[in-house]
Amino acid sequence: MSSSYFVGTKEFFPTVKKIGYEGKTSRNPLAFKFYDPDKIVGGKSMREHLRFAVAYWHTFCATGSDPFGSATLPHPWDEKSDTLARAIDKADAAFEFFTKLGVDYYCFHDTDAAPDAEASAYEKNMQKITEVLRERQKATGVKLLWNTANVFSHPRYMNGAATNPEFTILARAAVQVKASLEANVALGGENYVFWGGREGYTTRLNTLMKREQDHLAQFLSAARDYGRKIGFQGPFLIEPKPMEPTKHQYDTDAATVIGFLKAHGLDKDFKLNIEANHATLAGKDFGHDLQVASDAGLLGSVDANRGDPRNGWDTDQFPTEVLETTQAMRIILAQGGLGSGGLNFDAKVRRNSTDLEDLFIAHISGMDAFALGLETAEKIRTDGWLDQLLKTRYQSFDSGLGKDFEKGKLDFEELARLGHQVSDSLISGKQEKIEAYLNQMLFS
Ligand code: XLS
Ligand code: CA
Ligand code: CA
Questions:
Q1: What would the CATH number be for the domain defined by 20-383?
Q2: Is the CB–ligand 1 distance for residue 239 below 6 Å?
């Protein structure tokens, strides 16, 4: 990675220097306390395990506006009148941020980085900005974890993109997905994401669900074929979310998406990008959706954030709960890592966190929380107690009749006959013992 921390002509974060590791006693808010990129944990460096990415949309686009108030956050890269000049300043600010923070990856939507416009002008803007991003990747060594197309913000997508009841809108979405796939290949992107922002309904009264979902599958298959044709080799990722902005989104949760992919023969090319706050919106916890995806061999990448447990919307806060990051990293370690995926901070500072340095502090807190989670998960793995407890809990299926059952060697009559021969027994689930153990692993 280059030692010059900004590649453009202007420094956008002049008060922030390169963020370093200072250890857990440091009181410097602009330093890592736990994330020590080159530290080896279980045979790999923290940097290799965690594969952190910064999300362009929150960090450089989100203004702090909400339904009750306008922008609050300073964006010194958004000052020029020409839209392309602004986009280039934004790219410069972004790469300055990535390199000062010391993350290896970033993620973006087409319209985060390139000005939106009518179809042909949009394509030209995308090509221009792809070139701008490519130069900056080369200068800094920062790589593209994934990109995606924003086919949900423009009013034309109010009834959906790939699931729109009107064909011409579906075709217009293809303009953006095609350009985004081309940008991905030009930038060496490691994954490509689809989040179905408006792929769902606000009322079933005007909706043919099956027809819309068949269109979605057809759209994804055709996009997959085009991506492969132009040389994209990585996984396509679907990001589940149950609602918001629609009342019901077809990609509701991990289990629903897995069923959809299998039903349409897409599970060879597509995996899942699991976002913590989307899992909680779906009434599950983060670990639940990670585990469901991992069990299916389809956990591709993670949007690392958190919701607020006391409200029901997508607050996209930075992840700081170490018990949660520990459980996440336990699942990720158990499947041997994220492969080409990573931990993307799909998270934003609160609208009253108005100092530019707050963007750094927020990412540092998330990176430290995942570094702690990684170390604790590795400690639990090498300690072995919890794995042994799980093994013992299911051991009646490891031999004898239990094993015969698992192998499909017992028919149902035989099974019921065996049920007559046993007495009811109560075997403790040991939940409190495990919870106490987790605290011991966290704090000893
Ligand atoms: C919105 C989603 C979105 C996807 C990418 O809730 O999280 O940002 O990650 O389109
Ligand atoms: Ca997300
Ligand atoms: Ca979200």
A1: 3.20.20.150
A2: yes
